[in-house]
Amino acid sequence: MTFRKRPPTDALLLAVIPPLAAGLLRLLHRTCRFITLGDTTWRTASASDRPMLFATWHYAFPAVIYYFRNRQGVLMVSRSRDGEWAARVVHALGYQTVRGSSHRGGSRALREMLKSVEEGYDAGLIADGSQGPPQVAQKGILLVARSSGAPLVPFSMAADRYWRLNSWDRTVIAKPFSRIAFAFGPPIHVARRDRDLDRLRTHLQEELDRLTRLAWHYFDGTANGT
């Protein structure tokens, strides 16, 4: 008699937990009311069928991956062990991923993301990276915008009732039946010949800061985005 070798515990958990987590995110956010602020400009731009880039803060990740689900968008996810869990969750929500971060494999991942954008897929990148510092914009998404010519849409989010995790980014998870505000800024167009990434990074930082304040202030300042 022969017995099949059982897969390692981690493999079993990776097969079960990410789809379950994705299902719970769907269930939670279906109870919420989404409000969009300032989305007219990027929706007009998206009508051209050109690929678009999106950038936001890491703390908004749970609501963001639900909001843009099932569009086959491309996300960069860390190559760490935690990143493997995150990658499987977003796959279950209808995303593609490239694996890397500013600390490991970032250049290769950016090249893979650029290739996907050139093939016509929208892409998103967390502006403050996979390890922070929190709410400090990095240059990665600007490199993709410059090389691809795709417009970059900055946005941020807030909720009127939420939990905050005790993590480096202070992740926000909206509570059931809460209201979630997404504040979108006008697309940023980066010319291929523009080499002043410091100026562009400052502009992206200022826009994300402005949109973060706008989103939280939508709830009369009763919630705090810091």
Describe the protein's architecture and organization.
It is a single chain. The chain has helices at residues 9-30, 40-46, 61-67, 81-92, 106-118, 140-148, 197-217; strands at 33-37, 53-56, 74-77, 96-99, 123-126, 152-159, 162-164, 172-174, 179-184. It has 226 residues and is α/β, with parallel strands linked by helices. Strand 7 and strand 8 form a beta hairpin. Helix content is 40%, strand content 18%. It has 7 helices and 9 strands. Helix 1 (9-30) crosses helix 4. The strands form 2 sheets. It has a 7-stranded mixed β-sheet with strand order 1-9-6-2-5-3-4, with helices on both faces. The chain starts with 8 loop residues before the first helix and ends in a 9-residue tail after the last helix. Mean pLDDT is 88; it is low at 1-6.
In short:
This protein is an alpha/beta fold and 226 residues long. 40% of the residues lie in helices and 18% in strands. It is built from 7 helices and 9 strands; from the N terminus they run αβαβαβαβαβαββββα.
Query: What is the global morphology?
Result: globular
Strand runs, count: 9
What Rg is obtained from the alpha carbons, in whole angstroms? 18 Å
Order of helices and strands: HEHEHEHEHEHEEEEH
Query: Which range best describes the helical content: under 10%, 10-25%, 25-40%, 40-55%, 55-70% or over 70%?
Result: 40-55%
Number of helical stretches of at least 4 residues: 7
| Main beta-sheet strand count, sense and barrel state | 7 strands, mixed
Structural class: alpha/beta
What oligomerization state is this entry in?
single chain
Identify low-pLDDT runs. Answer: 1-6
Strand order of the biggest β-sheet: 1-9-6-2-5-3-4
Overall mean pLDDT stands at 88
- Strand-residue fraction? 15-25%
End-to-end gap: 61 Å
